[in-house]
Amino acid sequence: MALKFEVLGKFNRARAARLTLPHFICQTPLFMPVGTQGTIKGLTNNQLEEIGCQIILGNTYHLALRPGAELIDDLGGLHKFMNWKRALLTDSGGFQMVSLLHLADITEQGVTFQSPVDGKPMLLTPEESIQIQNKIGADIIMALDDVVKTTITGPRIEEAMYRTLRWIDRCIAAHKRPDAQNLFGIVQGGLDPVLRDICVRGLVDRNLPGYAIGGLAGGEDKDSFWRVVAQCTAALPEDKPRYVMGVGYPLDIVVCSALGADMYDCVYPTRTARFGTALVPEGVLRLKNQAMANDERPIDSTCTCMVCRNYTRAYLHCLVTKDAMGSQLVSYHNLSYMMRLSKDLHTSLVEGQFPEFVRGFLRAQFPKGNVPEWVCNAMEVAGVDISTCCAPITS
Amino acid sequence: MRFAVTRACGGGGGRARTGALYIGGSTTAPIETPSLLISTRKGLPTFVSRDHLAALPTPDSLLLHVSPLHFLDCPSSKTISNIGGLHQMLGLHEHFFVAAPRDSLESLPESEGTNKLGASFETPCGRRLIKPSAYVEKIASLKPNLWASMADEVPAWVSEKRNKTSVDRTLRWLDECLALDPAGGKTMLGLVVGGSNIEERKHCAIEVATRNVSGFWIGGFGLGENVEERSVLLNAVTDNLPEEKVRFISGLSLPEEVLQGVASGIDLFDSTYIYHLTLGGFALIFPFKILDHNNLDFQLDDTVGDRTKINLRATIYRKDISPIVANCSCFTCQNHTRAYINHLLNVHEMLAHILLEIHNTHHYLGFFRAMREAIKGGKFDLFRQRFVESRRIHLTSAVLCS
Questions:
Q1: A184 pairs with which residues across the strands?
Q2: tRNA-guanine(15) transglycosylase-like domain: which residues (chain B) (predicted)?
């Protein structure tokens, strides 16, 4: 184990913690921007530090392809290669396999696929994935899991869950650097509570440094989504970090945090920035919209980031989707927003202001009181009173 | 705005000079010339955001070129005025903007569409005809520190008649702009054209020199003229402009072209060199101290191109953990390696261009600084000769090896 997880504040299931990793001491809840190919698109390291990024995610599949795991290892690991001084997390490569390659096939051995470079048949095994991640050198590495879409039903889900458990043992055996890198297991099981429960208990038995809730954020309905998160966070150990993979929208992060999750990753903030959409307390601001052409306000008057302190919506409207600078500036703001959200979640829990924060957040997003039902249900389970945010139900 | 020549007869047959351009209030340090105008797209560099721009050498990096044509469609002049003009809109309060329509990249003079009403340009928004009144209105909302009048810039191969028309139009538009300028020319640069005709060049320069402008913008170069005849044409212009007023030029981008311009007495250059280098994945590496006796001490790069720039896409850089240039103090060289940039270029990541534009701008500004030192030391001709030779060494050595 190469991490420390100390809870600093709580509200029912929600918690703020200090997560000490080899390269950085982090505060949770936290959002991790995705730096797929060894860079966050359009932002430099010092900008990421200014914004407050603590952990960045790298994609094993992409990095193994280019520049290659051997090269990264030869040059001293990904931290050195990128010159990123804070923490890194790499995923196993499994998700990209399944989502990017239409000829991927999953067997007990591993994931077989056609190399995108030369079409040769290749195999990613749990051993291979861990070996690559050992070379990349991130603070947190993810086990290779058998991922299925949540929209699938039937015996495939059960098969995937049991295989994930068999594969975690192979990952543990293959992991050469447990003193420097933390191997997280991933809970699978689709939307089936019985399967999820079996998987959680199986992973907890292995006494891993941390746990992720996988297989979500793929198109399932929100009501199923929060229930799976709630079930898993209730069953996972208190004293270890919980990472909900692929989440996501600010609202989802607030709900999952209320339910007891600590870490999140998603391409959404940076990807949507490149399409000209900015994240604001009210939701989103579509800068491409003609209404922005003469709007002299900053993106968000409550935001103190470099972009909001210097630029107007009108000027950004000219840039977005047309000039590289537009992508950079909106990405900068969107990540600032996500870091501010992370910090607010952490601080509100430490200072005993969590329900107030949640209520303020929901009021800004739903000024008319039309908070979605799934959020209301989730908050009830989380024990956060949001009745003042919801408009009275007209009978 | 104030300009003073600080060293004349530094070389180039007596025409190369250093100067000091005071644009801000009296407390701001002057921009020493010859220097570079940093190219912008809608007022900001293509890839370098304001925080990284601020880290470039000052005051050299404070001078930005802006084309009013980038703002034809949005924001509206009214919105720009409400926001407070360029400095406010771009968050660049310490910087100085010099506005001229042509940017040699995307706003290109299109002489066939130009007529008596206005100048035609090819822009990303299509072909547009700009009238002096509309131009001045845009300038008024942008509030640049200096701005050039409108011109009819024609390529080198037009007929004599067309060339003469371009001079007449340019002078007429200069007078129109002056008449519409509330500051009465205090921040204006008069445009000088004349194509490849020495007499027209001379005539236009003499005429513009009589107007009440604060400096000059020399247009019509970089549009197909012969490199050899260029010096003659440039001299025909600068010999007929007052010594003590500042001279800008567009269309001379490469270091050799800049040297040619400096030799003819030009002070400030709008260059597309950095942009093209950056997009191509090239990084400048030439050393500046080329006057130190026989010091042709170039970084020993095995091949790939000339000794002044490296192509970071090349596979030899895959594992090269050195910075682009050892001891370069730019953000890129202080923080990243050639190997990392090679990877970024291979995977088409925007960060590659950001890092390259930072380094290339830093380095090219260094080139201008070295030029100024050479002029002050009276060694400009030697500097120019050495530099041009060094750019061609790889050709001679390639021949010798084959």
A1: A142, A210
A2: 16-391
